[in-house]
Amino acid sequence: MFKVPESALERMTSSTSHSSSPDSIDTSNCFDPFADVRDRMEALSLHSKLMNAYHKETKLPDGSISIDNDLSIPFFVAWTTYFSYALFTFVGHIREICSKILNRGRYIYTSNYPSDDKSKYAPLLQSFKTFYTKRIYHRIQDCFNRPICTNPGAYIHVLERISHDGNKTMQVLGTFEESNMSHDLQTLYKSGKHFSLYENKITRKCLNLGSYNYLGFGDDWNVTCQTPVLNSLEGLPTSMASSRLECGTSTLHSKLEQIIAEFLNKEAAVVINMGFNTNVTTIPALVGRGDLIISDELNHTSIINGARTSGAAIRCFRHNDVDHLEEILKESIVLGQPRTRRPWKKVMVIVEGIYSMEGEYCDLRNIVKISKKYGAYIYLDEAHSIGAMGATGRGCCEYTGVDTKDVDILMGTFTKSFGGMGGYIAADKAVIDMLRLKCASSSYHTSISPAVCQQVITSFEVRDID
Ligand SMILES: Cc1ncc(COP(=O)(O)O)c(C=O)c1O
C-alpha cells in the first residue's frame, strides 16, 4: 500500500504541458535540457502505478489518496509455477536416490584415478545449489545463458542452441548450412517470428536488459571510441604490470584523474582498476575501529563488503528515510561507542546516487542537510548516476541541486555510462593523497589499463561534442 499526495496527482495530470523538476528539487538556477524527459518518465511511472491499482484507490481525510498496490501474480500463474517447481524437486529427489542405489545416472562421478577413495573426502559439491543445478536448472537451461554474438548494445543477438542429451549440454546451431536440422524443421524455424541471422549464424534478436549502456557506447563504440582506444595501444601497453604507487601510472592515468576532478569540481581524484574494489578498498582506508558508518539499507554489496572490512561499527537506516537517519545520528552521538561510551572518532553516512535494483534516486539534499547538522561525513556512490543523471551528466549532486563541495567523498565507476571499467574517488587533495598511499587498490593492485583510461577520456570528449 502506498500513498500518493494530491500534489503528485496534479503534477501527473499536467506534467506533459510543463517542464519543471519534481517538487523536492530546485533546479531553477541551472539549465536542464532533459527536464521534460524526466518529467515525462516520472509521470509515466506514477501513471503505471495508478493504472495497476486503479480500482482500489480511496481518498483519505487528509486529502491524500491511498492505493492498494494490487500487483499480485494471477493465481493460475502462481499455482502452475509452484507446482512445476514442486514436481521437478520431487522427481529430482527420486532420480538422486535411484542413481545412488543403482550407481548409474547422468551425474554419477566416476574417478579416473584408481587411488581416489571417495569415502575419504567430504563432499565438495553437495548442497541444494548442486541439486538445483543438476535436477532443475539443467532441464530449463535453454532459457538462460545463451551465448551472445554481438556487442552489448540496446539489442543483442543470442545464438540458438539445441540439446541431444535432455538439456544436460547445449550445442549452438551454427549456420543454416552446417546445422543438423532437418529441411522441414529449417523451413518451420525460418517462418517463426523470432528467427534472425547474424553473420549467417542462426540467432534470436533480443532486447538487452543485462548490460550497462547508459550513454550508448555499447552501440556505437566503433564510430565513437574505437580509433583513439586502438591508437593508445601503440604508445602504451595493455597493462602497466605494476601498482599505481610503483610503476603503474601513465600520462593517461593522470589525464583521466584531472578530467574527473574538473568534471566534479573537486580538488583531486584517483582512478582505481575496478568499481567494486573502489568501495571495498577505499572505505577501510577512510574509516576503521572507533568510527561509525551509517549506511542506507539498500546499499550495494561492494559498500557492504568495504564497510565490514573496515572494522568500523555499522548501523543501517531505512532506505532513503531521512527521519530515520536523523534518529540514528542523534542516538549514536548521544550514546557514543558501545561499552566505553567514548565519542565516535568520526561518523560517515554512505548512500548511492541511484539505487541499482530499485532505480530510485537518493534524497541527497536532505541527507546532506542532516549529515551536516550532526557533523557526519558523506560518501556518495555514483556508479549508476554519473554520466547519466543531471543536466550535464554530473550525477546525483547536479540532479538534486547539491554542490559537490558539500559531499566529502564522491565515488563512481566507468562501467555503466562510459563503456569502460574501473572506478574513481573524487575529494579534497589531502584525502586523495592519503588514499593513494593507504587504499589497497592504489598501493597493491595493478593499475587500470591505459587503454581503458583512453576509453573513458574519449567518452568524456564525445559527451562534450554532443
Ligand atoms: C552502486 C554500485 N557500486 C559499485 C558497483 C561496482 O561497479 P563495477 O561493476 O564497475 O565494478 C556497482 C555495480 O553494479 C554498483 O551498483
The pLDDT mean sits at 85
The fourth-level CATH homologous superfamily of the largest domain is: Type I PLP-dependent aspartate aminotransferase-like (Major domain)
Oligomeric form = single chain
The figure for the number of domains is 4
Structure explained in plain terms:
This protein starts with a strand and ends with a helix. The longest helix is centred in the N-terminal third of the chain and has 28 residues, at 75-102. Strands 9-15-14-13-12-10-11 form a seven-stranded mixed beta sheet, sandwiched between helices. It is of the alpha/beta class and 466 residues long. It is 40% helix and 14% strand. The chain folds into four domains: 2-70, no CATH class; 75-135, no CATH class; 137-211, no CATH class; 222-465, Type I PLP-dependent aspartate aminotransferase-like (Major domain) (Aspartate Aminotransferase, domain 2), CATH 3.40.640. It has 16 helices and 15 strands. A hairpin with an 8-residue loop joins strand 5 and strand 6. Mean pLDDT is 85; it is low at 1-30. The protein binds pyridoxal-5'-phosphate (PLP).
